[in-house]
Amino acid sequence: MTYRLTTLPSGLRVATEEMPSVATVTAMVTVDTGSRDELEGEYGIAHLLEHMAFKGTATMTARQLAEAFDEIGGQNNAYTSADQTSYYAKVMAQDGPLAVRILGDILTHSTFDAEELERERSVILQEIAMHEDMPEEKVGEFFQESAFRDQPLGRSILGTTDSVSRITRAQILTYMRRGYGPQHMVLSIAGKLSHDEMVDAAAEAFADLPSSAGPSRDAAVYTGGEKRQEADFEQAHLVMGFAGLPHQDEDFYALQMLNTILGGGISSRLFQEVRELRGLAYNIHSFAYSFTDSGTFGIYAATAPEQVSELVPVVAEQVLSLTQQINEAELNRAKKQQLAGLAMARESTTALAEWMGRHLLEYGDYRQMDDLVQRVVSLTPEDIQRTARRLLSMGPLSLGALGPITHLEDYETMKARFSL
């Protein structure tokens, strides 16, 4: 496999990784702006804009775009995070330049037709309503709001019914002009390809992309705290956690390993202790989310109302145990899980395209497989214990709680349980 990088005169970086043994190509544009870059009155606009991808340009209607992909058996999609927004197309290898041209078209010549905009607005309002009916999603938003109170990172990427209802076409264009400049974007392409051919296609497709100053992003400040709400569900839904680590932190990979050991699989400490041995929850897992300058680490659990008071002390005990002992057997299992995940992703053109775009925006270079493998293999039990102590000392507990939570103890008692 061959990695190459070319920066166009506009500042747009075109990164490719050639995979001669595959038959497809994924082209992805990653933009260095996301929901945390929205201003007052724009909440939900990053996600709405992503939904408007492939909904019509100056040269093709939404239907024509859909037919263009169906005619070549291609796939396309887009997604939004707090830090970035990505648009991609996966096609057969011979259609790689066409995928690049279509991505360039939607990001430079989208018309944001009024009827299409209202239709997509309606879709997102239904998506917001759907999340209201999903306690595992809603309690996650409670947790994020508690972790970053009164900050963009504490808001839902979807926005609210009120904010999305008010966003105008003019606001979308202003938001794009502010953040969608070539200096703040990466076009990453992985699969069976010619780098020079892709660069030529990109130079033409993105020629009309205007320069921009880029988003002015406030630094994240982890606050901790709680948000709880009584609701008529069968189970109590909890998310408990702490400040996490940004992507560039020296302990980033140790955190991923810690997450695997604590709650990343069926052999994890939480799954074995909480579900298998005690039967306190059907669904329990941990997660580690990283942003450019911060992150969150949390544990999600859903349990019967009468078992809430028993569940929390057990979870706290398992979290604290990470600071005291990590045995070689569980560390080796976690390493094999991580390495297997890397190897499987390495065979995916879409995963590689995503890695290139994210790495170039966040690190300034592309961390290739050998480097990632070495970082995982070199981790020691002491690295995991040290990282666990860091997590517990970086700020107070964050808590989201939703459902029949009468038996859930008060915040100060819970916070003390997770203290070193």
Integer average pLDDT:
95
Largest sheet: 6 strands, mixed
Helical percent range?
Answer: 40-55%
Strand order of the largest sheet: 1-2-6-3-5-4
Domain tally: 2
Secondary-structure class? alpha+beta
Question: What is the straight-line distance between the termini?
Answer: 47 Å
**The CATH class of the largest domain:** Alpha Beta
Can you name the CATH architecture of the largest domain? 2-Layer Sandwich
The name CATH uses for the topology of the largest domain is Cytochrome Bc1 Complex, Chain A, domain 1
**Outline type:** globular
**Beta-strand content bin:** 15-25%
Kindly state the number of beta strands.
11
What name goes with the CATH superfamily of the largest domain? Metalloenzyme, LuxS/M16 peptidase-like
Seen as an oligomer or otherwise, the chain set is single chain
Task: State Rg.
Answer: 23 Å
Order of helices and strands: EEEHHEEHHHHHEHEEHHEEHHHHHEH
SS element count, helices = 16
Regions with little confidence, pLDDT below 50 for 5+ residues: none
